[in-house]
Amino acid sequence: MDHTGYVTLTRQSGLLREMQLVANNIANAATTGFRQEGMVFSEYVQRLHDAPSVSMAYANASGVSMMQGTLTETGGQFDIAIEGDGFFLIQTPNGERLTRAGNFAPNAVGDLVTMDGHAVLDAGGAPIFVPPGATDFSVSSDGTISSDGQPLGQIGIFEPTEPAMLRRQAGVMFTSDNGFGSAENPRVLQGFLEGSNVDAISQVARMIQVQRAYEMGQSFLDAENERIRAAIKSLTR
Fold it and tell me: At 139, is the secondary structure helix, strand, or coil?
């Protein structure tokens, strides 16, 4: 395959990855705490000895949108949302993860957990315990948790050191390659949930654009293949 084919194939590969991201965004437009992603394209230059360099499109990273999702009042005493920057910290079997999904509930032993059963951590990185039979569970705007007038701790709100290095692990959970620290002046809302920040209309429009671009690239590859076949056929006569 010549350089033209390789360059086009790298473009097609990047468009395919972007289509997968866009489709995932659209599928999670109604998922609590979901963060929209976008593909980041960069230029990859291959230098060859005694030959011109070749420049290719390289889709090797994705960016997570930090835009605020819609806050919906639920009235649930264990539903918690973050207004502004920051993430909840949860403990999973694979390590600590960041999330914006605040639909929590106490488990059988009293630990506050996510819908998947992962423990929600406090500002010090310890699980949050909710006393059995607590009737007046409240969360103040700074994340301080109390029950029946007695403070239980403070829910941890953290920010990635470099937001651009945030990586999706599964669903609404993220890791931060360069670590994270406590958020300054967090604002927490009890009885609210943050919806997905996916702009469904723009994502559908982007899906159409990516599909058309991919089809155009495929047509180019087909035409290039026919050109090479015709050239080989004429040379072998």
Answer: strand
